Amino acid sequence: MKNMIDIRLMLSKKRLIGLFVWLTVPTLLTMGIFYIFNDVTDDFSVPVGIANDSDEEEVESIIQEIGDNNLINVRMIEADEAGRLVEQHELDSTFVFDEQFYDNLENLRRTNMIESHYSNRSLAYGAIKESVGAVVQERYGLYYAKNMINQVEEENDAEQSDLETVDTLINDLIDRFNLLEYEYSYYGDITPVSDHEDMNIFLIWSIVTFFVTLFIFELIVSERRQKVMQRLAFTRYNMTKYFLYQVSILTILLVVSDLIAWFVFEFFYEQSISILTVLSVRLMMILFAYVLAVLIKNVYTYLLVSLFVIIAIIIFTFVLNPLFVTMDLGYLNHLNPLYQFINEEITVYWSVGLLVIIALFWRVRHA
Amino acid sequence: MLKVDNVSFSYRTKKVLDNVSIEIEDGEIIGLVGENGAGKTTFLNILATLLKPRKGTITYNDMKYKSKKSAIRKQIGYVPQDIALWEDLTVMENMLFFEKLSWVKKSEKELKDILLDMQLDRFDSKVKELSGGMKRKLNLAISLIHDPSLLLLDEPTVGIDLKSKIEINDILDYMSEEENMTVIYTSHDMDEITQLCDRTIVFGQDPFYRELLEREGMPIS
Ligand SMILES: Nc1ncnc2c1ncn2[C@@H]1O[C@H](COP(=O)(O)OP(=O)(O)OP(=O)(O)O)[C@@H](O)[C@H]1O
Ligand SMILES: [Mg+2]
């Protein structure tokens, strides 16, 4: 093995820096793409100003919840600038939670709880108002329920458990909770439009690293074509053995690069996936690249096919897979080699298929 | 001793070799001659185990080609017709590369000695910067790393200047005389063949080469 590493280094001497660059590409490029995606998401969101004149923590948490909506980009402002900022079109709309707000909430006074400002250019005002309203409505519902429960308790304490009263109260509560659920789901319907938070970083990574893997294996295709390879017959290694060693070395390097990616995403992006899932998709990629490199003799054809494979995977992942699900053709999703990985499963089907192809290939050649 | 017994070969439908038989003693230098497409390279590749004969048997030092292929390969030094080198590596790196893959370990000094034997001292030049003659020398030197006893060369002196040609011929002569190496090679240069070879094998139908060699008094098998 040491000899093999030595000659790998010898052949890659000039390309050594390049090779290491390639190995960090999956992590770096993924981070880049992820960053751009998140930035775009910010661009989609509407700038909304919120003024908070209340000291209550509860109000803070309501505002925080409003900001959790990707559609809304919250900027904290002073109450007296609320009108001006909308007039100057710096913000789409503004909402003021005044000193009275919490008192109103607690005592279930629901009219004029929030002051809002918007202009004729506040295109998103309708949707924003709904969203803000939904958050407040939800809190209001909770206070309402709390109030009811207190009332029931008080009446029980007084040992005047009038069954009829309790029954009405319970029904009232149930109605109220149903209403809440309804509002809640309505609120949920408008958000997914621009909700990119589900953009899994490992999804991007798997596509990038697949590309890099195919690209690195071009080395095998171009080296195998060299005239100098006919000398391998008169060395300790025949062609198959030589390339098996070379593939092993590349595999080790790629696995190291995978672990770096895994570590970065796990600890800096807090997106976790099991290492076994990563290693299984790595095995599949190596087998895929190996089969491609064995089947295709010409370097340019190889690169072209690799590019085509990656484009096909991108189309599958972002367009066809969701389509297949809605068309009830879920099994077609497995045409995408990354499908199991994307679903955080261990990649099995494609690896088995590729191994069968390799076995067939060996049989044909040795027959 | 190399024994070739009734060997025939054809590519699909095209018959190239028809019942070739010859016995070659250790230390002999044999020239393979004949017009283009006569089958010299094909025969050499069969002797190098790279092609299997359709008919006939070959044995080297009592080892059958059919059953002892890998043992025989260790004994063979093969110099391909094309220059088979890493163009981007230096002369020495090319030597080291194949030393690492070789059955026989050689020190850097021993590798340099092989190169110096053929007047090649530009160890640190890239192959792509070398002249045709120097490339041919390196092409030969690599084949000698594992101390073969049977050297097979396909046009080792084609397209190079007279001085390099003589230097390569001297090496082949030395290998056969001093190391008792069996040398089998192809060439279109009849002067070279008549000077260097002990015997020749003529391929093809054209009587031209046969007549020419007979006039020179060269033994033909
Ligand atoms: N791989 C192949 N497939 C089919 N035919 C081949 C193949 N290789 C060689 N031939 C044919 O076999 C014949 C012998 O070829 P070979 O290369 O052995 O000739 P040669 O004597 O070495 O010629 P040259 O002097 O040009 O090197 C030629 O007619 C050639 O066209
Ligand atoms: Mg030839």
UniProtKB/TrEMBL annotation, chain A:
<dbReference type="Pfam" id="PF12698">
    <property type="entry name" value="ABC2_membrane_3"/>
</dbReference>
<feature type="transmembrane region" description="Helical">
    <location>
        <begin position="271"/>
        <end position="295"/>
    </location>
</feature>
<keyword id="KW-0472">Membrane</keyword>
<feature type="transmembrane region" description="Helical">
    <location>
        <begin position="346"/>
        <end position="364"/>
    </location>
</feature>
<keyword id="KW-1003">Cell membrane</keyword>
<keyword id="KW-0812">Transmembrane</keyword>
<dbReference type="InterPro" id="IPR051449">
    <property type="entry name" value="ABC-2_transporter_component"/>
</dbReference>
<dbReference type="InterPro" id="IPR013525">
    <property type="entry name" value="ABC2_TM"/>
</dbReference>
<keyword id="KW-1133">Transmembrane helix</keyword>
<dbReference type="GO" id="GO:0140359">
    <property type="term" value="F:ABC-type transporter activity"/>
</dbReference>
<feature type="domain" description="ABC-2 type transporter transmembrane">
    <location>
        <begin position="25"/>
        <end position="343"/>
    </location>
</feature>
<feature type="transmembrane region" description="Helical">
    <location>
        <begin position="242"/>
        <end position="265"/>
    </location>
</feature>
<dbReference type="GO" id="GO:0005524">
    <property type="term" value="F:ATP binding"/>
</dbReference>
<feature type="transmembrane region" description="Helical">
    <location>
        <begin position="202"/>
        <end position="221"/>
    </location>
</feature>
<dbReference type="InterPro" id="IPR036640">
    <property type="entry name" value="ABC1_TM_sf"/>
</dbReference>
<feature type="transmembrane region" description="Helical">
    <location>
        <begin position="16"/>
        <end position="37"/>
    </location>
</feature>
<dbReference type="GO" id="GO:0005886">
    <property type="term" value="C:plasma membrane"/>
</dbReference>
<protein>
    <submittedName>
        <fullName>ABC-2 family transporter protein</fullName>
    </submittedName>
</protein>
<feature type="transmembrane region" description="Helical">
    <location>
        <begin position="302"/>
        <end position="326"/>
    </location>
</feature>
From TrEMBL, chain B:
<dbReference type="GO" id="GO:0005524">
    <property type="term" value="F:ATP binding"/>
</dbReference>
<dbReference type="InterPro" id="IPR003593">
    <property type="entry name" value="AAA+_ATPase"/>
</dbReference>
<dbReference type="InterPro" id="IPR017871">
    <property type="entry name" value="ABC_transporter-like_CS"/>
</dbReference>
<keyword id="KW-0067">ATP-binding</keyword>
<dbReference type="GO" id="GO:0016887">
    <property type="term" value="F:ATP hydrolysis activity"/>
</dbReference>
<keyword id="KW-0813">Transport</keyword>
<keyword id="KW-0547">Nucleotide-binding</keyword>
<comment type="similarity">
    <text>Belongs to the ABC transporter superfamily.</text>
</comment>
<protein>
    <submittedName>
        <fullName>ABC-2 type transport system ATP-binding protein</fullName>
    </submittedName>
</protein>
<dbReference type="InterPro" id="IPR003439">
    <property type="entry name" value="ABC_transporter-like_ATP-bd"/>
</dbReference>
<dbReference type="Pfam" id="PF00005">
    <property type="entry name" value="ABC_tran"/>
</dbReference>
<dbReference type="InterPro" id="IPR027417">
    <property type="entry name" value="P-loop_NTPase"/>
</dbReference>
<dbReference type="InterPro" id="IPR050763">
    <property type="entry name" value="ABC_transporter_ATP-binding"/>
</dbReference>
<feature type="domain" description="ABC transporter">
    <location>
        <begin position="2"/>
        <end position="220"/>
    </location>
</feature>
